[in-house]
Amino acid sequence: MIEEKLLTEYARLVVNTGVNIAAGQDMIVSSPIECAELARYIAAAAYDAGARDVTISWSDERFTRLRYEKADAAVFNEFPAWRRSLYSDAAADGAAFVSIYSTDPDLLNGIPGEKLRNAERSAGAALLEYRAKLMNNENRWCVVSAPSAAWACKVFPDLSTEQALDKLWRAILSTVRVSEGKDAVKEWDKHIDFLHRAAAFMNKSSFSALHYRNGLGTDLVVGLPEGHIWAGGSEKAADGRMFAANIPSEEIYTVPDRMHVDGKVEASKPLVYNGSTIEGFGFVFKDGRVVDFHADKGRDVLDGLLKMDDGSMRLGEAALVPYDSPISKSGVLFYNTLFDENAACHLALGKAYPTCLKDGAEMDSVTLLKHGVNDSLIHEDFMIGTADLKIDGIYKDGRTVPVFRDGNFTENALAEAPVFRHGEEAPAPLILKQLNI
Amino acid sequence: MIEEKLLTEYARLVVNTGVNIAAGQDMIVSSPIECAELARYIAAAAYDAGARDVTISWSDERFTRLRYEKADAAVFNEFPAWRRSLYSDAAADGAAFVSIYSTDPDLLNGIPGEKLRNAERSAGAALLEYRAKLMNNENRWCVVSAPSAAWACKVFPDLSTEQALDKLWRAILSTVRVSEGKDAVKEWDKHIDFLHRAAAFMNKSSFSALHYRNGLGTDLVVGLPEGHIWAGGSEKAADGRMFAANIPSEEIYTVPDRMHVDGKVEASKPLVYNGSTIEGFGFVFKDGRVVDFHADKGRDVLDGLLKMDDGSMRLGEAALVPYDSPISKSGVLFYNTLFDENAACHLALGKAYPTCLKDGAEMDSVTLLKHGVNDSLIHEDFMIGTADLKIDGIYKDGRTVPVFRDGNFTENALAEAPVFRHGEEAPAPLILKQLNI
């Protein structure tokens, strides 16, 4: 049993720092039925913060799987009008959206890919306006997590279900900076200020490349395109109110130059891809492209991933996460993007966020490629951060400055006053998919 | 833990006997999140029976209460368009509707009546078409039950939550005739045949009155209006397919003559009204109206109930339930209409079902009163059945025939071949409210 005051504090964090609810505003909470307790705490916190009304949109993973197994295949080409109306009407009315993300990593194993793709396509078409509003920060939104039994047992397979649930709860609360006797909202004010300082330094420095090195054997230069933008922490919504779209969030991230990545890099954590685990792997890059790779485990899976399309052999994201951040220190492999992508400094193979390039959101795909912004059907993070990671920033004139030492930002990199620049921050579109029901 | 095969059999009963799902038909299941297990079994059974798709519309009692406590009072004057669309669109498309009814009897204690009335009024207006379709049997529907923790602890207050849940599950399964090694659908075929036989006998006999007597002191003559109809068991939907709107259902019922009830009647079980328990009570009737009453406990509450309006002192329903039926034999007070109204022979104070009179559905309220069909804001069942209850049917010419002896139908009353007459059966409108979310 998680203490009531911790859940209350977590809910207050989601409502205040997360979606920053306004007096009289409506809120939609998407929640698995297994996370009902947290959903109720969040609803209560929203009402206490002045929300006019809260709607909980429930889902059930086990029914989701049952439906994929048994329903007429044609239903996955449809999307119910009432569900579209639930999301689109609320978005049009200015509601805030909270999504509780708690997924059994093995839930959809064995379900034919065509059904999944059809369902995704139908949802995409029906929820186009809703998603666009959230992507453009017209509505404030936040993705958070709570444990489910299946997920907890995947993360802690040696424990009883009850113990696993408790342990996963403790791990989540610790990563989101909710702890006994501390004001979580104030902790997040400090944390977001930290991320904004780091992003401000990186944006002001406007490096042409980063040089990564550590004892694992990583020695990699990642080029950064002209006009790249570092984003992270909280963002500003269209109405000027700040919000934090992901809780937890430990990263600042940008777009690498798809043509200028050179050297070798070793992964520091396993990668779980479509239910398979890839371990002890690394890549050699030349002119932005993977020219060699190895893996102690899951080499075939990695090979398939790299060969998905032209862009899957190039980088689409570079993200900086301090080794001292709570997820990294927990040592837990969460099998959940929201946590694992915040576990360490990472790179991603595949698609880049156009919003991480100045005016990128308005560019067509050819123009984006010309500017070094990668495209692919995939976007797969892999962790490279270690306790001894050092990163130098390389200016256009060739001078260098230490950005990371011993796995963390240098003092120099945090000296910059945070200047929040509205419109330059990427709304983390890959997480957005968790908001769909 | 309830055995998987019992849940499977219960779900099969709901899908086949309850809504009688057709190949290619859609189904909506309204379920509290606490009843997710049964909801999934019902969904699986529906798919196995050929349903095209199943939608589960979830609700959560604890959030319902939280919302009544904390939301802006104005929201209860609204009804969300998406929720209206969920029910109305599905009804228009010919879906079947299952509602899992599992209510904490004390859930809304202390919530201001105005909020509840406003919410009910808004839902009533928004769901008018949907409800009309179900009332007219245009769509097939079924209300069933599964335990929730709060409800189970109310019924078995001396047990642990886990024990109470298990005991309530066993009680429910036994009342719905689901048991190890038996085919529940076949059991219900026999049961419905039994109810149809009894109704056919009562309808053919067209008694002018019933005369109730037992050792408790009941000696009551209940007049029956010209054109009254006995209904019960399964009904025929607009498309000709049979369905059973309530599982369990043990009664056949009709409308008494509001002006012709004379004698005294003693209640055989306590009555729970708005959270208060009335015990050891009875009435004296003259010319259809209560002229005296007594109660060992809850006399004031009963007094208030009787004085609600003019119709609350007259009868609106007479229902026959064999003393040997499973709910009666269980001896459990369920605090749940679906079960308790099927516990014994009963009468109801207040509003009558117009559909229990020939052409009654088309009559205005004045015409109905003229025909002896009572009207009131209330409809309160009270149990009068005992092991020694005898009921005689009185023909127009004064002859009598035994209908009940020793608490059960006489053989004579069951000798009639069931003639199902479409359009003469009442759709039990008071249970229908359970279908709203």
In words, what does this structure look like?
- 2 copies of one chain form a homodimer.
- The first copy, chain A, has 437 residues and is of the alpha+beta class.
- Helices cover 33% and strands 23% of the residues of chain A.
- The first copy, chain A, has helices spanning 4-18, 36-48, 61-70, 81-92, 113-126, 128-135, 149-155, 161-175, 184-205, 299-306, 326-330, 337-340, 365-370, 429-432; strands at residues 26-32, 53-59, 96-101, 141-145, 209-213, 219-223, 235-236, 242-243, 252-254, 261-266, 271-273, 276-286, 289-297, 315-320, 346-350, 379-383, 390-394, 400-405, 408-409.
- The radius of gyration of chain A is 21 Å and the shape is globular.
- The two termini of chain A are 28 Å apart.
What class do helices, strands and sheet pairing of chain A give?
alpha+beta
Low-confidence stretches of chain A: 421-437
What's the main sheet of chain A like? 9 strands, antiparallel
Residue-averaged pLDDT of chain A: 92
Apparent shape of chain A: globular
Distance between the termini of chain A: 28 Å
Q: Quaternary status of these chains?
A: homodimer
- Tell me the Rg of chain A in angstroms: 21 Å
- Main interface: chain pair and counts: A-B, 32 and 32 residues
Beta strand count of chain A: 19
The helicity of chain A comes to: 25-40%
User: Strand percentage of chain A, roughly?
Assistant: 15-25%
Tally of DSSP helical segments of chain A:
14
